[in-house]
Design goal:
This protein has 396 residues and is α+β, with helices and mostly antiparallel strands. It contains ten helices and ten strands. The structure holds flavin-adenine dinucleotide (FAD).
Length: 396
């Protein structure tokens, strides 16, 4: 069933939004309701990747929002990009993560750390949406502890020979290019032997392993990537030798804002469903929204969503101005993901029995939201990052 998504709107004018941002929001919102919402539950139930939506998003220029037009992007900013992820995630988490992983993880490191030749080679196809991108950092033994990378890339003449396994690579199966990390000295354990590389689909030795069967975001592609003597041209190394770990950490600082935006959209979607139901359903002769306990729950959801929205937009706004944003990105991701979980939990409760069924999207939102507390640094890691910032700032 199509979710009732139009009844609640806490997106009041914000100091972070220009008129252009509001126009983009309205355009994406209309697109999301018309094209994405009607298929969201089918994607979830059948675990189908939304190829047709990806094509439509490319036509609208929504797969390269923050990149300059000369590189195939829309030439907008990161606030606009967060609005896009938020509005898509509001109706479909699968679509939201597909766009966020493609943009913040699959394209951003090439744009940020690539040479001009590398940018020209890969970014236009990605930013225009002609092709999807992906990012592979996580390994079986290297999750939160990304320094424990074991994939190796050994120099052999004018090539790098890559071996090892990456896991949980979003968009991995469909990506034309995957940015990944590997150790150039297999015996080393420090971060200075970790480099970033780009591998293109179809490269001999690049294999696709297990496709994850997940709790939520079930239409999203989450793939194991296996390298077996995969030979990459020397020019596929991104940035300086030994710089890969730092580049990936920097990439995640930006990516976290987009996971915050995704969480924000999911939370708003939960409020949409809960409010619409609470305004219609009557028990004891009263609409649910008129009962104080239900009203309080809705009020808390709306207030937390408004606060999360400000954190997400502020982090993106800072990034757009070249200001430090790592701390604000962690605030945004941590807070918005926990707000999404609370909002989704509340939505199921406000709906009662029907909230527990697949008739309404509340249960899907609950399942989809959980990833936002895990991907791109778990909540525990965000608290660690924030505490380190606080310590550093206090000592400065
Ligand atoms: C759907 C999905 C999509 C993903 N997409 C991508 C992707 O595109 N690319 C990619 O590279 N990765 C991706 N990931 C991987 C994701 O980033 C990792 O799962 C995440 O970083 C956690 O790593 P882990 O799963 O190994 O958990 P672990 O690191 O094993 O953590 C397990 C638990 O221990 C806690 N913990 C670990 N270390 C500490 C510590 N120092 N202090 C306190 N608590 C700690 C964690 O917070 C967590 O609760 C994806 C994962 C999922 C589920």
């Amino acid at each position: 069933m199509t979710p009732p998504t139009t009844s609640a709107d806490t997106s009041v004018p914000s100091p972070f939004l220009t008129e252009e941002h509001v126009q983009i929001r309205d355009m994406v919102r209309e697109f999301a309701l018309r094209e994405v919402a009607p298929i969201a539950s089918e994607l979830d139930e059948t675990k189908r990747f939304p190829h047709e939506t990806v094509k439509k998003l490319a036509e609208l220029g929504l797969l390269g929002v923050p990149w300059p037009q000369e590189y195939g992007g829309a030439g907008l900013d990161h606030v606009a990009y967060m609005i896009v992820v938020e509005e898509l995630s509001r109706v479909c988490g699968t679509t939201g993560i597909t766009v966020a992983a493609h943009t913040s993880l699959g394209t951003a490191p090439i744009y940020a750390f690539g040479t001009e030749a590398q940018r020209r080679k890969w970014v236009p196809r990605l930013a225009s949406g002609e092709a999807l991108g992906a990012f592979a950092l996580t390994e079986p033994g290297a999750g939160s502890d990304a320094k424990a990378t074991k994939v190796t890339a050994v120099r052999d003449g004018d090539a790098w020979v890559v071996n090892g396994t990456k896991i949980y690579c979003t968009n991995g199966t469909h990506a034309a290019s995957i940015v990944f990390t590997a150790r150039t000295d297999p015996k080393a354990t420090g971060t200075d032997s970790i480099c970033a590389f780009v591998v293109e689909k179809g490269t001999p030795g690049l294999h696709y392993g297990k496709l994850e069967d997940k709790l939520g975001l079930r239409g999203s592609d989450t793939r194991e990537i296996v390298f077996q003597d995969c030979r990459l041209p020397a020019e596929n190394r991104l940035g300086p030798e030994g710089g890969g770990f730092g580049q990936f950490m920097k990439t995640l600082e930006g990516g976290r804002i987009s996971i915050g935006a995704m969480a924000l959209g999911l939370a708003q979607g939960a409020l949409d469903v809960a409010l619409a139901h609470a305004r219609e359903r009557k028990q004891f002769g009263l609409r649910l929204v008129e009962m104080q306990a239900v009203g309080n729950r809705l009020a808390d959801m709306a207030m937390e969503i408004a606060a999360a929205r400000n954190l997400v937009y502020e982090a993106a706004w800072r990034k757009d101005r070249g200001m430090p944003y790592a701390l604000q990105g962690s605030y945004a991701k941590l807070f918005a993901s926990e707000v999404a979980m609370r909002a989704a939990h509340s939505a199921v409760q406000v709906l009662g029995g029907i909230g527990y069924t697949r008739e309404y999207p509340a249960e899907r939102i609950l399942r989809d939201s959980k990833l936002t507390e895990i991907g791109e640094g778990t909540s525990e890691i965000q608290r660690l990052v924030i505490a380190r910032h606080l310590d550093k700032l206090a000592g400065a």
